[in-house]
11-endoperoxide prostaglandin H2 reductase (Prostaglandin F2-alpha synthase)
Amino acid sequence: MSRESSKYLKHRRFVVSACLVVSSSISRRSLCTSPPKNASTGGRLWQRIPLRRGLLLPQLGFGTGRPGGSREPQVTLEDGRRRLVAAVKTALRTGYRLVDTSLFSGMETAVVEGIRQSGVERSEVVVATKLLQMAHNSSEAVHASVENSLRNLNCSCIDLYLLQSPRAGRILDVWPQLIRLRNEGLIGALGVSNFGAHQLEGMRQSGLELPEVNQVEVHCWRQLPALTEYHRTHGIVTMCMAPLARGEMFGKTEVATIAQELGQTEAAVAVRWCLQMGYIPIPRSVRSSRILENTASGFELSVSQMERIGRMNVAYVACRKASPCCEIPWEAIAESIPDKSLWDESKKRKVEAAERRSQLQEERARKALERKQQQIRAQVSSQNSQSRRKSEIVILSELVQQQMGERYLRKLNFWSTWLPPMAVRSRLHRASADGHYARLSEAQQQLQLVSLGPELSHELLTTEL
């Protein structure tokens, strides 16, 4: 951190510590006031949900993201910024009082500009932003990320600051740093995003203070009952990221039927379900008509309709890179940065393919080794067999030479090429007795044919010794 930044930080901390009580009381009173003059929606839009440390969050939020980018490549960054400024202005004039953004999106200044153009007092608006994931690498980066957001939002205290994802890792180091910054007055309330129940439990068992908010993908089609029950048990507010499932489930489930029954859109029904469950949905749009539609005002879901939606949970994931992070083991994120394959499906598929290739190579190598071993055993066996055969042929040669003379010895050498020693011995004894192979018994001829083959057998049968 530079010397100028350090002086700036010390001065701001002094000002904040001196004025914190007064400013917070004024801010809280303004959050509890009646709707602004430009509001055109019903009373439920103004309901506040208290956090553990006293901040009152508006129950309906406005998601911003980053217009353009990969989902809208035809929209330039500057056009996206202008669209976002207009959308924030429309949302605030419609009645929204919670705006969600992030430092990574690069749109914090656009949110401030939208608030300014709306004419709504800044003290009436709660702004939530997030820590850069790369800032988890060091304490200096954490401070720098908070500093940048404070500068972009033009404020001395961030209303709600979220740890963006567990996949950034090193939670045991980063979370206490954010707690200290909150205690110094630079952050109003702390929360997390995309954390699962086992990760939150890991924080609790490690002695860390639990977050006040968990921003996670929860909607009609992904209700996460175990996680939301954990939230209720430990005083954590559920903030619904992508409450419309990005529109990917519209027209496919019971929500469409309920929307027809009520004469509403599926988007309005999905937001209303979140509101009646006690969650904080943050729908996102840049179109004025949809911004108004997403307030889900003027109607309520009946008990039976809520039950029908409750039975419709299909665990559908719309945020395919962010939401899987809630499944990363606590041990992988507590003190280190987890491997990308634990949460990125494409990376996971690559790792699995590499493992399959490695297993295939190992199997091939194992089979090749077995074949080589079999060949060596066969060679050794063959060599042993040939050695035994040679020794027996030598003994028979001596015997034949003694009893039958040189003629029989030549024939023996010919036979020994084709017959095992026992067969050679049998034929020699018969030959010495009868004089010709043509006089062998029928059984011996059959044995000879099997052992020698037809052509050689015929030659030997018709040859006189």
Q: What stands out?
A: The chain has two domains: 3-343, 351-461.
